Amino acid sequence: MENSKIYVIVFDSTHSAIAAEKCLKDKKIPNEIIPTPREITASCGLSIRFNIDSLKIIKEALQNGNISINGIYELKKQGNEKLVDKLI
Length: 88
What we know:
Blueprint: E1 4-10, H1 14-26, E2 32-35, E3 46-50, H2 55-64, E4 71-78, E5 81-86
Antiparallel strand pairs: 1-3, 1-4, 2-3, 4-5
Protein name: Putative Se/S carrier protein-like domain-containing protein
Domain Putative Se/S carrier protein-like: 7-74
Organism: Alkaliphilus peptidifermentans DSM 18978
């Protein structure tokens, strides 16, 4: 089975996730709002999926927009296993 990776930004609140999505879209930075993966937290919430190549510009945009994050994660699927690494 093919290995795959996705990158997500997790927020303290749904409000912060929606504000971040708007901030990034206004700056034409590709992103997708998704339910927070259960491998990261069991609580309900929204996260943003993004391309790792955009990490630096995303961090700058969110910092300039005063939008706080809970963490940035890499999720890897290796066969039937799901692995989570906290990047920030």
